[in-house]
Amino acid sequence: MRLKNCKFIRIQSPVLLYLIGLLNINFDFFLMLQTQVKFIMVKGYSTQCKESLRQKKLINYFNSLIMDKYPLLQLIQVNQQFERNNDGKRIYNCIASDTINQQNVQIIGLSYKICKQNVKPIIAVQEWNYLEDQNYVYISKFKIKSLSEQIIGNPNRKERLRLDNYNQNHLIHYLKQEKQRNKEAKIQKEKEDIRLHRVYQPIRTLDDKSDRVYIKARIICKSDLKQSTKEHWNGQYFTIQIVDQEGDQIKGVFFNNLCDKYYDLLEIDVSYEFYNFQVKLNTFEDKNCNFEYGLIFKGRCQINKQDEDIPMKWSRIEEIQLKPIGSIINLLAYIAVECQNESGTGQKSFERRQLALRDNTGTILLNIWPPTLYRVQRFGNIFISIKNIIINKLNYLQLNSIDGTKFEVKVEKLSQINHFKSLYVNKDKLVLNNNSNSKENLIAAFYPFQKFEIEEQDIQENYDQLVKLEAVQQEIHQNQQSTQVKSKLRLNKIIMKNTRDQVKTDL
After folding, report:
1. Strand partners, 60
2. What pLDDT, on the 0 to 100 scale, is given for residue 92?
3. DSSP designation for 421
4. Pairing assessment for the beta strands 90-97 and 102-108 based on DSSP bridges
């Protein structure tokens, strides 16, 4: 802020500083207006005056404020040859710019290192003289504000520099931008240093004694906003389920104001850094979840999006038995049987689709429920990758779909999964002899199957041969279908022509 008719004063008395400190006044500096002889406190960076506050701090601070009123120039060309004055100081011949005009200047005391560098420094001129007869400016005192690498403005006119005008907007704007850039770069560097030296705690080590720890995890499930029905508390909440790099999972819950802040911000399949949360024994109402601990996020929690995503892990069917009920997993398997039926009786019956999934380690049942059921068509007996399915146990271990479940059947994308090629080569061992999609066959899919070991030799070669063979078979099938379609079209044309001829005859 710039005020007219204003003088900066220096408080030279240590006694006055001490008295201000006793009053516990938070202040920066005082301004004395000539029109109104009184002090005005200006709010700024808060520092509490104590006995340790010395006169030198305030003097330096006032000097930095006074520096803002000096005119700014940019040295766009510096001659490295110099002369010496009577005091032995170096005098450099330069060309200076005020962003519009440029003029020759002589400057005293410029650093030799700056002259050697390929920079165009911006200086605040404190003392100068115009030498009209020689058409140059003599600068005897200055302060370097910035070391720019580019020329600011468009100084094409070779006229007198405007040293009486303090409002050189181009240079002031450039310095403000540079200050902001330096500030952002410093903050970014501090964040990067903190991130590089930060230690993330695995989810499996969390307990109710964990305090002020960082975890890095990917969100795999997010519930809808819900309203509490408890008598002693009425508010809204939502839950998330996260997985860390080691594959361990945990649930977290947000309440009230945090729902408005984070519900739209948090995205599924995106990695975040979580800090300042509470770890408590699991009190969630979900009966199908047996996690020992849960996370409670409160007002001061910090959640930051991470650029480095946590890699997605694909489970084998035999590994599902080792995971807790309620865990959300990703699975690659072969659909041995696909059956559409209903669950329940009467008004509480629900339509569902059941898949018997197989890999080389076992068979498991997947239930696809609405609304996921309405988004997918029938798959048939093919390989499929399924993201975000939940482990459930009702009489026996099984899998259920959730709102965030995603299916992929394209071979090009499935081939990016590590163990897909080995399963694809051994496809014959996963297919049922009776290939009917009935409920009886769905039950039979679990019994005749035996685990088998996969031989890693020549997998790539066998895989390429199978892909080529299936591509040829698919092309033949498409040609047959196109031939049938063409014959039907030809037959329809003949029928329509005969019909038109018959109508003409009747008329």
Report:
1. none
2. 87
3. H
4. antiparallel
Rounded to whole angstroms, how far apart are CA atoms 327 and 399?
Answer: 10
Q: What is the DSSP letter of 455?
A: P
Tens-digit pLDDT profile for residues 364-379:
999 998 888 888 888 8
C-alpha to C-alpha distances, 471 to 249, 427, 478, nearest whole angstrom: 40, 16, 10
From the list 431, 416, 411, the residue with the least C-alpha distance to 471 is 411
Q: At a CB cut-off of 8 Å and minimum separation 6, what does 417 contact?
A: 314, 332, 385
**DSSP letters for 38-87:** SEEE---S-EE--TT--HHHHHHHHHHHHGGGS-EEEEEEEEEEEEE-TT
Contact status, residue 326 vs residue 391, Cβ threshold 8 Å: yes
What one-character DSSP code corresponds to residue 269? T
Q: How far apart are CA 186 and CA 180, in angstroms?
A: 10
Identify residue 131 by its one-letter amino acid code: L
Helix axes 14-22, 55-66, angle to 10 degrees: 100
Burial 422-457 (b: 16+ CB within 10 A, else e): bbbbbeeebebeeeebeeebbebbbeebeeeeeeee
Report the amino acid identity of residue 178: E
* Under 8 Å between Cβ of 155 and 96: no
- CA-nearest of 412, 418, 400 to 311 is 418
457-471 pLDDT, tens digit each: 666 767 776 677 677
Burial category of 202 from C-beta neighbours within 10 Å (exposed 0-12, middle 13-18, buried 19 and up)? middle
* Paired sense of beta strands 120-131 and 236-243, if any: unpaired
What is the CB neighbour count within 10 angstroms for residue 119? 17
Strands 328-343 and 383-394: antiparallel
Cα dihedral angle (205, 207, 212, 217), rounded to 10 degrees?
50
For the chain, the C-alpha Rg in angstroms (whole number) is: 39
Evaluate if pTM is beyond 0.85: no
The pair of structure tokens assigned to 289 is 């979840």
Q: Closest Cα partner for 123 from 103, 144, 104?
A: 144
- Nearest by Cα to 216 from 261, 246, 255, 253: 246
Contact (Cβ atoms closer than 8 angstroms) between residue 328 and residue 314: no
- Tell me the two tokens of residue 125: 């001129």
Whole-angstrom distance, CA of residue 411 vs CA of residue 392: 29
Q: For residue 94, give Cα distances in angstroms to 97, 424, 429.
A: 10, 76, 85
Residue listed under structure tokens 């115009």: 130
Q: Select from 380, 379, 364 the least CA-distant residue to 323.
A: 364
Task: Inform me whether the pLDDT recorded for 144 exceeds 60.
Answer: yes
